[in-house]
Design a protein that fits this description.
The chain has twelve helices and seven strands. The chain has 488 residues and is α+β, with helices and mostly antiparallel strands. The strands form two sheets. The chain has a five-stranded mixed β-sheet. Strands 1-2 form a two-stranded antiparallel ribbon. The longest helix is centred in the middle third of the chain and has 79 residues. Keywords: Kinase, Membrane, Transferase, Transmembrane, Transmembrane helix.
């Protein structure tokens, strides 16, 4: 009975171990069978079967060569499973396999402490026999078997909990799963796992020694190791977790630094451009006003003469007046910088999308606006770039599709809200760890930072950014406090 129970327990543990493997690999690697819902189940079952077969072919022993051979075979088995079921020809695959082995071994040795803690139960049962509380040999054997089985069940439960919790933590902290690691970066995050794995292999080699023909556990010979070994294993596990967190923070900081440099250049360039455009348009408005008055006087004077003699002059002056009307800025939002930006972006857009509809009637800014014009320009400029690109892609896929961009704003208390809505092809590429949609352009480092720049600009005014998708309509919402920048 107990033999059958132990075999069932081994099968369940092997399948559970396989489940953790497919959970871990599936979080980082793309499946070779994306349409197959059972890919993870295949990995779990196959790993469990191979693990049981490996244990049958190479039974657990205490010889160093056997232990090392078994670990090497397990390593190649994991790599083979990753390559067969996932698109795993990446440097990160090495990290995943080694880390999985290290975390599994560390979790096992930590869970093994349950056996050591439960050894006192056997002394208790022996004492009960000596006191006469247990008189039947059959009952004593039954109690011993129950105790052993119960301890193994608890040990494997602890093993599974530690393993799953650690893998889940790694999955959560490793945010940049698409990041292409360099060799130095791979060595940086691989080293803690390698150290942990080698420590566990060393423990397997020295855990059992033979003295005078009897096997002795290392813990029996050196009881202090019952405290030292778990501490070393816990520190090793923490080093794996913290190295991953540190690596991800480094990626984030480098990306923020690059984004900030680009943003600062954009801001500087836009400040100069907007200042110049504001000066030019201010002069044009003044000149247009004076010229229209002058033209009106000339037309009045020309009208007083013979109409036949002045027909050509009347026509010329009328055309000149229409030309002056075309100098009128198309968009009027109450902010000169925004008007200029909208005009510039609109003319850029209609060259690519002639029938583009841009509605800005509800985009108005109060006279008491305290937000810097170039910050508004950063927000609207990046938002319009994204919207125009989305409309261009939609038009490329569906030439008859309606393309539009609608901009609106309103004020509520001290808050300014802006909303940019545009049509798009309905295809949103988003990774679960990403806050914003991911660009589909090849150079992801140079592109795909528009929404991040908008978020950074809004953050200066204690604001935020949100986005939503409804069928084939993308909506970007930006909230800012109508106040001077927080760093001023």
């Amino acid at each position: 009975m107990y033999d059958v129970l132990n075999v069932c327990l081994e099968i369940i543990v092997a399948l559970g171990h396989g489940y953790c493997l497919q959970y871990f690999l599936g979080a980082f690697l793309e499946s070779r069978l994306p349409k197959c819902k059972w890919n993870g189940l295949f990995v779990a079952v196959l790993y469990g079967a191979l693990k049981l077969l490996l244990n049958l072919l190479i039974p657990s022993g205490y010889e160093s060569t056997v232990i090392i051979e078994k670990q090497i075979l397990l390593l190649f088995m994991l790599i083979a499973l990753a390559l067969c079921f996932y698109k795993a020809v990446h440097t990160i695959t090495v990290f995943l396999v080694v880390t999985f082995m290290a975390v599994s071994e560390i979790s096992f040795f930590l869970a093994y402490m349950v056996i050591q803690a439960g050894n006192g139960l056997f002394d208790l049962w022996s004492w009960c026999v000596g006191q006469g509380y247990i008189t039947s040999t059959e009952i004593f054997d039954h109690i011993i078997n129950c105790t052993v089985t119960g301890m193994y069940i608890v040990m494997y439960l602890v093993f599974g909990m530690i393993l799953y919790a650690t893998l889940k933590k790694i999955k959560k902290d490793f945010r940049e799963k698409e990041y292409a690691m360099h060799r130095t970066e791979l060595l940086f995050i691989l080293t803690p796992g390698m150290v942990g794995l080698l420590i566990c292999i060393l423990l397997r080699i020295i855990m059992v020694t033979v003295e005078n023909g009897q096997m002795k556990l290392l813990y029996d010979k050196y009881p202090l190791l019952l405290w030292i070994v778990p501490v070393i294993l816990i520190l090793s596990l923490l080093s794996i977790l913290y190295s991953i967190k540190l690596f991800q923070d480094m990626i984030y900081l480098n990306r923020e630094k690059s984004s900030r440099i680009i943003l600062e250049k954009q801001i500087g360039s836009m400040q100069e451009h907007m200042s110049e455009m504001e000066r030019v348009y201010s002069g044009i408005r003044s000149m247009k006003h004076d010229m229209k008055n002058t033209l009106a006087v000339i037309m009045q004077l020309a009208a007083g003469k013979c109409e036949k003699e002045n027909t050509d002059l009347q026509t010329y002056l009328s055309e000149l007046n229409q030309t002056m009307d075309r100098l009128e800025i198309q968009f009027k939002t109450g902010n000169t910088v925004v008007d200029t930006l909208l005009t510039m972006k609109y003319h850029e857009a209609v060259k690519m999308i002639p029938d583009l509809q841009m509605d800005t009637e509800r985009l108005l800014f109060p006279d008491t606006l305290l937000i810097q014009s170039y910050d508004i320009g950063i927000i609207l400029g990046n938002a319009l770039d994204n919207a125009i690109e989305a409309c261009r892609k939609l038009k490329g896929k569906e030439p008859d599709a309606e393309t539009f961009i609608r901009l609106s704003s309103f004020r509520k208390g001290k808050m300014i809200f802006m909303e940019i809505t545009n049509s798009f092809d309905g295809n949103v590429i988003r990774k679960w760890q990403s806050e914003f949609p991911v660009t589909d352009k090849a150079d992801k480092e140079a592109h795909g930072i528009g929404l991040t720049n908008i978020k950074n600009a809004a953050g200066k005014y204690h604001g935020g950014v949100d986005w939503s998708v409804d069928n084939k309509v993308f909506t970007l919402s930006v909230m800012l406090q109508n106040e001077r920048r927080s760093n001023e």
